[in-house]
Amino acid sequence: MEKNLEPKTVTCRCGNPIVMTEESDWCTKCVRKVYYHEKEQRSHRWDNMYIFGVIVVVITFLAYVFLELIVTPAV
Ligand SMILES: [Zn+2]
């Protein structure tokens, strides 16, 4: 991880400005992760959405399997 970057003021999502000299840092106000490059922050958000999507698919699949196992023998 690259360190000692040119100091840059990044505004956190809570509105707190943070002077950053590293790739990522923690907001001193809301303790969220803040990224030096805005692009990284966006791709990180997409990662979270992807994981959320996978979880939804898995839960739906498990619910389907569960219903199949419960309903089928009763018929
Ligand atoms: Zn913050």
**Could you give a short account of the major beta sheet?**
2 strands, antiparallel
Number of helical segments? 1
- Share of helix, binned: 40-55%
The largest beta-sheet arranges its strands as 1-2
Which percent range describes the beta-strand content? 15-25%
Distance between the termini: 60 Å
The bound ligands are: zinc ion
3D structure, described in words:
About 50% of the residues lie in helices and about 20% in strands. The chain has about 80 residues and is of the alpha+beta class. The chain has a domain at about 1-35. The protein is rod-shaped and about 65 Å long. The termini are far apart.
Task: Give a short overview.
This protein has 75 residues and is an alpha+beta fold.
SSE layout:
Blueprint: E1 8-11, E2 17-20, E3 24-26, E4 33-35, H1 38-74
Antiparallel strand pairs: 1-2, 3-4
Bound molecules: zinc ion.
Main attributes of the structure:
75 residues; two-stranded antiparallel ribbon; alpha+beta; binds zinc ion; rod-shaped
